[in-house]
Amino acid sequence: MIMRTTIKLLLASTAALLLAACEKPPIAVSQTGFRGTGMEQVYNPRTLATQASLNKAPEVSAAVEDVPGGPKAGAIYQNVKVLGDLSVGEFARTMSAITEWVAPQQGCNYCHVAGNFADDSVYTKVVARKMLQMTQKVNSGWKQHVAETGVTCYTCHRGNNIPKEIWFAPQPQKSAGGSLGNDFGQNRAAKSVGLSSLPYDPFTPYFLDNKPIRVNGNQALAMTGAAANRSSIKQAEHTYGTMIHWSEALGVNCTYCHNTQAFAEWGANATPQRATAWYGIRMARELNNEYMVPLTSVFPANRLGPTGDVAKANCATCHQGAYKPLYGAAMAKHYPAMYAPVKAPDAPAALPVADAGQAVPVAGKVEVSAK
Q: Is 0.85 topped by the overall pTM?
């Protein structure tokens, strides 16, 4: 009797452990492809309810009516290097919005010296200027990924000084000391790869370096020569770890971007989202290398990672669990400062003054000046 009770308790405990990671029903399923192909998105309604509250866009501040011919911010305020082409009213509106998006508790003094807003001695002002340029680059130069929705400072910051989702290069595990020795970059059950044993830095190879993420081969592994598939198992694990990040960052499963019948195919069977993701990883790589890494020396030591690197962006930085950041709320269009200024076309070069008998180009022809 005691043995039977013990076995029942053991089985119950085992079942509890096995089910601990399962989600409480009911679970919602949305079919995205043909029946029988597994093209479905699986959602937890309770998780979605939480995500909806975290991805709600703030109200747009009232627009400021421009005064025709009125002064620009660069002509009124000192040391305005990025937003000088805005009207004075729009400039003030933008500064107010950025304060609410990034530093609602600290206010203007988070980036500015009180009484001398032109002073650049506060590092956060230097960073904010660079971040404005980065936002303009995303909205004006990466429409393949952000389309007309665009991004603002709020997309990443959500009212926090530091975006919730950033990444640093992890501290290398020393081989000397410790029971595990050298972990060779994996087997740490890290959050970055869904607590799996996969390589826990899936970001450096693809979001900073330009390593090949594709590991599918078109030829058999046994082949030799240039046609052989030379992707290693470890490289495949890095790719898979990155896919886990994508899935968690967007709150979707694999079939949001991939067709189950042709995971590697880019033809008619590929989903539109896969192309969007292709541009997204390249966008993040450019932003990290051209905007974040150059700021390394600007940040104080306490804002750097364990290896001394600067905070960088990945998919979760903007998405934060939503398949579209803020579920597609188009905030950027209400703030002209979030887009790079449209430059007027260059004026045609002045024609040279001709001496008598000299050939001068005129409207695509060659005429002779007869002074």
A: no
